[in-house]
Amino acid sequence: MAKEKQISKAVIKRLPRYRRYLWELQKKGVEKISSKDLSKLIGYTASQIRQDLNNFGGFGQQGYGYSVDYLYEEIGNILGINKRYKMVIVGYGRLGQAMASYIDKNEQNFHIAGIFDVKQSIQNVEFQDAVISTCGTLASFIEKEKVDIAVVCVPPEKAQLVADTVSSAGIKGIWNFTAVDLDIPETIAVENVHMSDSLHALAYYMQDME
User: Fold this and answer.
1) Which positions ≥6 away from 42 have C-beta within 8 Å?
2) Cα 158 to Cα 156: distance, rounded to the nearest angstrom
């Protein structure tokens, strides 16, 4: 469908936000909503919302608006998050632990299959069905278990080595928290999370309020 044409990254970045607000509407029992009312909730213009959704077929009906349940489900399908994914956490320091906890509690379709660290033993792991091991077995585990996503939480100087390892093992996507831009094949999807970028942007916006 829509994947036949190039969709801008800005549009893709907005879709999870739409879905999050639709989830809140579902919990309140709201069955339908107009682009105008959705605009008031999210902060994007009604025109922007319609343009974004029209990239994938529109989903709305004139005079009715959008079915909240249907739009929520369809955005999930577009994003690919209605499927099940296997993940590994690479680097189980404080950040790795925080990300593992977040995924386990909030992302039911993303299953943590393995946790890998340089330490010989990892204490107090909450994920009983996850394989706990050192990084030396990372590649073989990804190959054997057909893992989809590697969550990389290692120190910056180790980031490229880990990326090379998981890429060669057949990983499909990397969620990168190392603040290093990785050099990997174009066939692998990467989402870089630079926390300092967000913090520095916040500092900029605060200047306008002084």
Assistant:
1) 17, 18, 21, 49
2) 5
Question: Residue 30: helix, strand or coil by DSSP?
Answer: coil
The DSSP symbol for 132 reads E
pLDDT at 4 over 80: no
Q: Identify the helix (H) or strand (E) that includes residue 114.
A: strand 110-117
Q: Is the dihedral of CA 76, 77, 83, 88 positive or negative?
A: negative
At CA 183, angle to CA 178 and CA 187, rounded to 5?
110
Query: Strands 32-33 and 65-67: what pairing?
Result: antiparallel
Q: HEC string of 55-84?
A: CCCCCEECCCEEEHHHHHHHHHHHHCCCCC
CA distance 115 to 87: 9
- In one letter, which amino acid is 144? K
Share of the chain above pLDDT 90, in %: 74
Label each residue of 89-102 as H, E or C.
EECCCHHHHHHHHH
Pairing of strands 110-117, 131-134: parallel
Residue 98, pLDDT score: 92
- Chain-centre distance of CA 65, in angstroms? 28
Which has the closest alpha carbon to 145: 160, 159, 161, 129?
129
Q: Average pLDDT over the chain, rounded to whole?
A: 90
Q: What's the predicted TM-score (pTM) here?
A: 0.86
Instruction: Kindly state the average pLDDT of the residues 153-181.
Output: 96
Joined tokens for residue 127 = 């994920």
**Helix or strand or coil: residue 130?**
coil
122 three-state secondary structure: coil
